[in-house]
Amino acid sequence: MPFLIVLIKNTFLEALISLIIFPFWWYTIGLKERFFNLIKGIKNLAHNLALKIMFTYLFKPMFGEFSWSGRIISFFMRLILLFWRLFLFILGVVGQLLFFIVWISLPILAVWQIFVLSGF
Prior knowledge:
By secondary structure, the protein is mostly helical. Helices cover 85% and strands 0% of the residues.
């Protein structure tokens, strides 16, 4: 019987400690990790869309076509691709920033719903 009492007491104590420590972890260590993941995600997005390569080779002819018509077509084709990839990059960054803001405000929103909406 004492084992059961100790087990229940330890379980309750662990849950209470976790409940108290949670906000501090969420806004210190968790926020730091989430911020570094945000930066890494933006870098990965830029790498996956090859934005640096697109800017580097904007004025180079495609497929080794050095005629004037080839150069003009290559420039405008790369420009269209660059605009499209920049649009996707901006869309991805905005999405990641919105996720980061939601992640920050989620505990505050949960506490607000508990106290305000339930009538406490």
